[in-house]
Design a protein that fits this description.
The complex is a heterodimer of chains A (115) and B (114). Chain A has strands spanning 4-7, 10-13, 19-25, 31-37, 43-51, 54-57, 65-67, 73-78, 87-94, 105-106, 110-114. With 115 residues, chain A is mainly beta. Chain A starts with a strand and ends with a strand. Chain B is globular. In chain B, the strands form two sheets. In chain B, strands 2, 4, 5, 9, 10 and 11 form a six-stranded mixed β-sheet that branches. Chain B has strands at 4-7, 10-14, 19-25, 30-38, 44-51, 56-59, 62-67, 72-77, 86-94, 102-104, 108-113. Classes of the chains: A mainly beta (115), B mainly beta (114). The interface between A and B is medium-sized, with 26 and 26 residues.
């Protein structure tokens, strides 16, 4: 049981380049999330999805796009990378929060540097 | 807007000590509070989840308490060990938004000295 898997683990981009981060979960979770973690600021929610084919904006969505074409996958895209997007990106998943007391399970993160 | 604060930002203790990590939040309208552990270069591991109707949760040497009315939670670690060294994050799940998003504190970096 792999849980939440993120690829790649590390990446260096030049300003203006594009890339996609992949998150895959094998726990049949309905909800998936993308966060970024910056020094001294905790984790901030970028986008989330409550089910296949649906996405919504979180706290810091600008400069990112997401897609959830399959229930097990949640993609985070950077169309034109900027140095301000240098961060560690975490994906998480959980069962439906209609019962609200469902813990989120996290991947190991993607360390992204934009030069 | 919910804000979560963790004090201290860093803590160093000798092995064997009992210690308390603090978490405070500004909006008491929460569904639950979760404590996570993060090891260097790794993701977050959920330690304890306290529902808004609960006062505390225990797992092994860990005990988390919640005082929703005062906007505070504590994580108590008994008989600390060097293996407990990590960053501890608390997060609250708010009452707005369809995904009940988590708001995180910036963490307390704990070092347990052998």
């Amino acid at each position: 049981n792999a849980g939440v898997t993120q690829t790649p683990k590390f990446r260096v981009l030049k300003t203006g380049q594009s890339m996609t981060l992949l998150c895959a979960q094998d726990m049949n979770h309905e909800y998936m999330y993308w966060y970024r973690q910056d020094p001294g600021m905790g984790l901030r929610l970028i986008h989330y999805s409550v089910g296949e084919g649906t996405t919504a904006k979180g706290e810091v969505p600008d400069g990112y796009n997401v897609s959830r074409l399959k229930k097990q996958n949640f993609l985070l895209g950077l169309e034109s990378a900027a140095p301000s997007q240098t961060s560690v990106y975490f994906c998480a998943s959980s069962y439906s929060t209609r019962g609200v007391n469902q813990p989120q399970h996290f991947g190991d993160g993607t360390r992204l540097s934009i030069l | 807007k919910q804000e979560v604060t963790q004090i201290p930002a860093a803590l160093s203790v000798p092995e064997g000590e009992n210690l308390v990590l603090n978490c405070s939040f500004t909006d008491s309208a929460i569904y639950n509070l979760q404590w996570f552990r993060q090891d260097p270069g790794k993701g977050l591991t959920s330690l304890l989840l306290i529902q808004s109707s609960q006062r505390e949760q225990t797992s092994g040497r860990l005990n988390a308490s919640l005082d929703k009315s005062s906007g505070r939670s504590t994580l108590y670690i008994a008989a600390s060990q060097p293996g407990d060294s990590a960053t501890y994050l608390c997060a609250v799940r708010g009452s707005s938004g369809s995904a009940r998003q988590l708001t995180f504190g910036s963490g307390t970096q704990l070092t347990v000295l052998p």
